[in-house]
Design brief:
With 96 residues, this protein is an all-alpha fold. It contains three helices and no strands.
Length: 96
């Protein structure tokens, strides 16, 4: 790799690192909201809501296409995020 390309790569990676820091803050906020949702659930079987999951994934697909983003990428990201939070909710569910 040429020195010029190496410099460009370094700059792009620095921008990615900054974006990752923003994403961490967004995930922290999302986790806080998920905790509030979890506090309202009375039964463990309320954790997985297939209708809600389908709605979210359809909305993400639509917004991805509107923004010229490959929907396969966003679908994978959101599915992983949804199931990670479902796992979080299951681990943190308190019977009432």
């Amino acid at each position: 790799m040429s020195p010029l390309k190496r410099k460009k790569l370094s700059k792009i990676r620095s921008e990615l690192d900054k974006l990752d820091n923003i994403l961490i803050k967004v995930i922290k906020k999302r986790t806080s909201l998920v905790k509030k949702v979890l506090a309202l659930k009375e039964k463990k079987n309320q954790i997985v809501d297939q209708k809600r999951i389908k709605l979210i994934l359809n909305n993400v697909r639509k917004k991805s296409l509107e923004n010229n983003i490959d929907p396969k990428i966003t679908n994978r990201i959101w599915k992983n995020m949804i199931w990670s939070y479902i796992d979080f909710e299951r681990r943190n569910f308190k019977r009432k």
